[in-house]
């Protein structure tokens, strides 16, 4: 499904040059769930952003189902992301002025689907995640675990094939963390492909493969 070859990324800060990714190779098969670990600042988010099409590599090849992603324009990347990718972040960026339903429905607004179908999709997604009871609540009234599930609902509403998660349990208490992990497992059992950046050994344990970014390279870890 995914092939990365010799991916490199350097950031420039004034005169300073930070070589973050120094030649990353990775293959991910459809239906796999993999963990990416590594110290803070090692380049995990940089790699995930490249996979999501939010950032472009300076060098190397990114193939997604035979499509050459590294050659796409920013416009094409935005479309690629919208159609194929569900992106889950640590700090669940929800829109405070909108309620839960509207936050989850947001990605569907671009696709011009009928209102009834939109409502059905959102309510189904909320019940799948066990949070139908918060549907009309304001998002600032939610617990951390609920807010993260709302953010996940929004990331999944378009049925993406690939789910990228950047420290999805990073700011959750233990109970919410367990719920989110069960959810990741469930999504994977349903055939979704997941790439999860994490510090959390529990997350890494439920993944099929574990990698670590070290000194700009991706190393496979024993399982
Ligand atoms: N947009 C940017 N501009 C300059 N430096 C950046 C940018 N994004 C990340 N970096 C730097 O690149 C390195 C890797 O960052 P990041 O991928 O966020 O690491 P991680 O997610 O593993 O903590 C860090 O040193 C960070 O400061
Ligand atoms: Mg990060």
TrEMBL record:
SMART domains to which the protein is assigned, alphabetical: AAA
Does the keyword ATP-binding belong to this entry?
yes
Q: Which GO terms describe its cellular component?
A: membrane protein complex
Q: Please give the family membership noted in the entry.
A: Belongs to the ABC transporter superfamily.
For this protein, the record's Gene3D superfamilies field holds: P-loop containing nucleotide triphosphate hydrolases
* SUPFAM superfamilies per record: P-loop containing nucleoside triphosphate hydrolases
| PANTHER family listed in its UniProt record | ABC TRANSPORTER DOMAIN-CONTAINING PROTEIN (PTHR42798:SF4), LIPOPROTEIN-RELEASING SYSTEM ATP-BINDING PROTEIN LOLD (PTHR42798)
Q: Which domain of life is it from?
A: Bacteria
Q: Which GO terms describe its molecular function?
A: ATP binding; ATP hydrolysis activity; transmembrane transporter activity
User: Per its UniProt record, what InterPro entries does this chain match?
Assistant: AAA+_ATPase (IPR003593), ABC_transporter-like_ATP-bd (IPR003439), ABC_transporter-like_CS (IPR017871), MacB-like_ATP-bd (IPR017911), P-loop_NTPase (IPR027417)
Q: Which organism is it from?
A: Halalkalibacterium halodurans (strain ATCC BAA-125 / DSM 18197 / FERM 7344 / JCM 9153 / C-125) (Bacillus halodurans)
Query: What is the protein's given name?
Result: ABC transporter (ATP-binding protein)
* Pfam families for this protein: ABC_tran (PF00005)
The segment(s) forming the ABC transporter domain are 2-223
> Per UniProt, which keywords does this protein have?
ATP-binding, Nucleotide-binding, Transport
């Amino acid at each position: 499904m995914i092939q990365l070859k010799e991916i490199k990324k350097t950031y420039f800060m004034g005169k300073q040059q930070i070589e973050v990714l120094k030649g990353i190779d990775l293959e991910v098969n459809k239906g796999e769930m993999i963990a990416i670990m590594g110290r803070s600042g090692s380049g995990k988010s940089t790699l995930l952003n490249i996979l999501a099409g939010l950032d472009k590599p300076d060098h190397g090849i990114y193939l997604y189902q035979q499509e050459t992603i590294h050659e796409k324009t920013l416009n094409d990347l935005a479309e690629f992301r919208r159609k194929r990718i569900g992106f889950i972040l640590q700090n669940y960026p929800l829109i405070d002025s909108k309620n839960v339903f509207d936050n989850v429905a947001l990605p569907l607004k671009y696709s011009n689907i009928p209102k009834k179908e939109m409502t059905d999709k959102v309510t189904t997604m909320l019940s799948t995640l066990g949070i139908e009871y918060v549907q009309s609540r304001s998002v600032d009234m939610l617990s951390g675990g609920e807010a993260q599930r709302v953010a996940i609902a929004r990331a999944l509403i378009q049925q993406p094939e690939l789910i990228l998660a950047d420290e999805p349990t990073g700011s959750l208490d233990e109970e919410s963390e367990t719920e989110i992990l069960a959810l990741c497992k469930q999504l994977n059992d349903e055939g979704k492909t997941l790439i999860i950046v994490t510090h959390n050994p529990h997350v890494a344990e439920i993944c099929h493969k574990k990698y670590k970014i070290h000194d700009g390279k991706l190393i496979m870890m024993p399982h």
